[in-house]
Amino acid sequence: MIKFDRVTKRYADGTIAVDGLSLEVPTGEITVFVGPSGCGKTTSLRMINRMIDATEGQILLDGVDVKSIDPPTLRRGIGYVIQQAGLFPHRKIVDNVATVPHLLGWDRKKARDRAMELLERVGLDLKMADRYPFQLSGGQQQRVGVARALAADPPVLLMDEPFSAVDPIVRTSLQEELLRLQAELNKTIVFVTHDIDEAIKLGDRVAVLRVGGHLAQLADPPTLLARPADDFVREFLGRDRGIRRLSFISDEGLRLRADLTVPASAEVSSVRDTAEDWLAVVDGADRPLGWAAVKDLPESGTVADVPLAPYGTFVRGRDSLRGALDAALLSPSGSAIAVDEDGRVAGVATREALDEALGKVAGGVGA
Ligand SMILES: Nc1ncnc2c1ncn2[C@@H]1O[C@H](COP(=O)(O)OP(=O)(O)OP(=O)(O)O)[C@@H](O)[C@H]1O
User: Fewer CB within 10 Å, N- or C-terminus of the chain?
Assistant: First the structure.
């Protein structure tokens, strides 16, 4: 565990970058420091590995004051990833990653094998291993940066805006890769970003800092979204806070109806008299085909002859309420089709059911 105990950093010119910061970073979790430019995120991060020394207070790593550990020893147990990856330009990719194991005295082959293993782990094509950094895209370089930070298998990883310089699509895939890696590795990660969406996606806990280096709130993402501590945090979270909260709420409380589906092979005459406006049409394997408007049903024939309206689906038990709502908005029926992991229809969440579930969410705010 990393513990900040009333940590202050005053730079030589008198700037107070961090002011009496106290917080704990639990082992094996991702803690994100987020906040506007100049709020002291980077300074806080760098005080952990002593690239910057605190003016007052203590940072304890598993109970030991980092100031009592000499920086090279300290940094051996702490991986560090920065924006633009910071790779050595004149070394091949594999050698960039093997540098730390090499410094730790591993022989050349063992260090190289470790580097190749890590490149694979971070999702990089091994053909890249013998290239130089300039021959890689920004996103690929960031992957190498992560592999390099993991090379000595440090228990702690510090990441300073590591994905800020890449486009949104690459950024999303790097974020997902990090979450996948973390599920395997369980590192203690401190991640700095100014992007609240990134913070909410990656953080087990999110520390929101305000300018002057004050901690405004430390909470898990659902709590942060439901109960911001003050106006500053509320504003920082942005206008669509309510919608984003739905991503953290499981769809399990959503009532499904089993009686709103009809096989495409059914005779129209068997469904004409239903009181419903819409029916979800499924194929022989129970997979959704679309929505049939009951009022537009022909006089005779099978449902297969009916023109179908578009539909949206969500995976029951895996998607959030936001996924269900999104699926409903993709269809003129206003209802969402729930499917199981194999894509078979599990039921229909009607507008009424969604309304009921959303009502419970709204009722939970401030509770
Ligand atoms: N070496 C320095 N000397 C004086 N002031 C500094 C120094 N380094 C940083 N600062 C100031 O300390 C404050 C916090 O800076 P820091 O880089 O930690 O913020 P940040 O939250 O990481 O910002 P950004 O998101 O813009 O990178 C800022 O006001 C900055 O200008």
Answer: C
Residues 16-62 pLDDT 10s: 999 999 999 999 999 999 999 889 999 999 999 999 999 999 999 99
Query: Which class for 328: exposed (0-12), middle (13-18), buried (19 or more C-beta within 10 A)?
Result: buried
Tell me, in angstroms, the distance from the centre of ligand 1 to residue 224's CA.
25
CATH superfamily, with its number, for domain 252-363 = CBS-domain (3.10.580.10)
Q: What angle do CA 305, 311, 317 make, to 5 degrees?
A: 130
Rounded CA gap, 241 and 103, in Å?
46
45 alpha carbon to ligand 1 midpoint, in Å?
11
Both tokens of 55, joined, read 């003016």
Of 3.40.50.2020, 3.40.50.720, 3.30.420.180, 3.40.50.300, which CATH number belongs to 2-248?
3.40.50.300
What's the pTM? 0.81
